[in-house]
Design a protein that fits this description.
Elements: H1 10-31, H2 39-55, H3 64-76, H4 81-88, H5 100-125, H6 135-145, H7 156-187, H8 189-203, H9 218-231, E1 240-241, E2 246-248, E3 251-253, E4 258-259, H10 263-267, H11 310-327, E5 328-331, E6 344-345, E7 349-350, E8 357-360
Antiparallel strand pairs: 1-4, 2-3, 5-8, 6-7
Helix pairs in contact: 1-2, 1-11, 2-7, 3-5, 5-7, 7-8, 7-9, 7-11
Length: 362
């Protein structure tokens, strides 16, 4: 089932994103011209959108409960490649240094689930079928309507896992994509200026961005597509499994086999994307400067099992990116070395820590 079926249509979601973008701008303004790491602020903002949908309210960025949740999310998603192998091949946990990682991650994920369970219990105690406040209330209503259905999948455990997936997938991938976007903006000031010129020509300096403006901003759309391609936030995509025995290119694949899709190889195929390591939004513009969609850019996967949060993620990326570049120019700190574009592979492919300066636009 989609968010729309639970009362969260495009307009409702966009309102929550716009509200959070204003709060994010205010937090950045407080810093002034000092260098800072934007990654945690962006993660706070994106996670707060999820909180607004799930809990019906957002948190102040310095709220202690929110900070503990963010810390658990950070640690829970920091497992490197070898640690991930230890999850699939438990015998590797006997190798010194590999067993500790999965155990720590498991503890943090238990913390997140306990937090969600606490919120669910509170919502059930205060539930009013005539006043649906958020996604948890929507699930409580749906669960109650199916109480007499022995075959229902709407249980407390099911709801908890859905909310857990929404936090893990919805918060981390979007915030990491935005981190790559701002990294490439400070490394390519000419591209940043072109984006700002387009934003200001469509919105001016005061009108709030909306996804309805996307069609009027082909260059901005091309930049975000190139960020998704070159960053390849989830290099191996989401985990899938075969529902029955099948064959592929002569290989027999039994039912229940875990299947990973190598999105990185698609996004960095030199035959389709010449010089794939170069950041070049022009790949996605035609001779008239209009946006040209490319089916080889598949950050959300493909087919009926592609990422269910695609619509929300695309809305967040566009609104946060355009609203910040509408009001700030992002630069390298004076005298700072250029940050590396070689990423760190954990649960997601993220940039190494870097600092920038946000210069307010008049």
């Amino acid at each position: 089932m989609s968010l729309r079926e639970f009362g969260f249509g495009k307009r409702s979601l966009e309102g929550k994103i716009l509200e959070e973008s204003v709060s994010l701008q205010a937090e950045i303004m407080k810093i002034g011209n000092r260098p800072f790491d934007i990654s945690r602020m962006v993660q706070n903002a994106v996670t707060n959108v999820i909180c607004s949908i799930v809990f019906g309210s957002r948190f102040a960025y310095n709220d202690e409960k929110f900070k503990r949740l963010m810390d658990a999310l950070d640690r829970g998603l920091s497992l490197n490649f070898f640690g991930q192998l230890a999850i699939f091949f438990p015998t590797l946990r006997r190798v010194p240094g590999l067993g500790r990682g999965p155990k720590m991650i498991q503890n943090d994920l238990v913390t997140i689930r306990a937090y969600l369970r606490e919120e669910m219990d509170t919502h059930k105690k205060t539930f009013d079928p005539n006043d649906i406040r958020d996604l948890i209330d929507s699930y409580v209503r749906e669960t109650k309507s199916r109480e007499n259905d022995d075959k229902t999948t709407f249980t407390d455990d099911y709801t908890e896992w859905v909310l857990f997936d929404l936090f893990i997938a919805g918060a981390e991938t979007t915030s990491t994509t935005l981190n790559w976007a701002f990294l490439y903006m400070i490394l390519n000031p000419d591209i940043q200026r072109k984006v700002q010129k387009e934003i200001h020509s469509v919105l001016g300096h005061d009108q709030r961005p909306s996804t309805a403006h996307r069609a009027q901003m082909p260059y901005t759309e091309a930049v975000l597509t190139e960020v998704a391609r070159i960053g390849s936030i989830t290099p191996m995509g989401a985990f899938h499994a075969t529902s029955r025995d099948t064959s592929f290119h002569g290989y027999h694949i039994p039912e229940g086999t875990t299947v990973l899709t190598n999105l990185w190889s698609v996004h960095h195929d030199p035959e389709h994307f010449p010089n794939p390591g170069k950041f070049d939004p022009g790949r996605f513009l035609d001779s008239q400067g209009q946006y040209r969609r490319d089916d080889h850019v598949i950050p959300f996967g493909v087919g009926p099992r592609m990422c269910l949060g695609k619509q929300l993620a695309e809305m967040e990326l566009f609104v946060f990116f355009t609203s910040l570049l509408q009001h700030f120019t992002f630069k390298l700190p004076e005298g700072a070395a250029k940050p590396s574009t070689t990423g760190i592979s954990g649960v997601t492919h993220s940039p190494k820590n870097f600092e920038l300066v946000a210069e307010p636009l008049a």
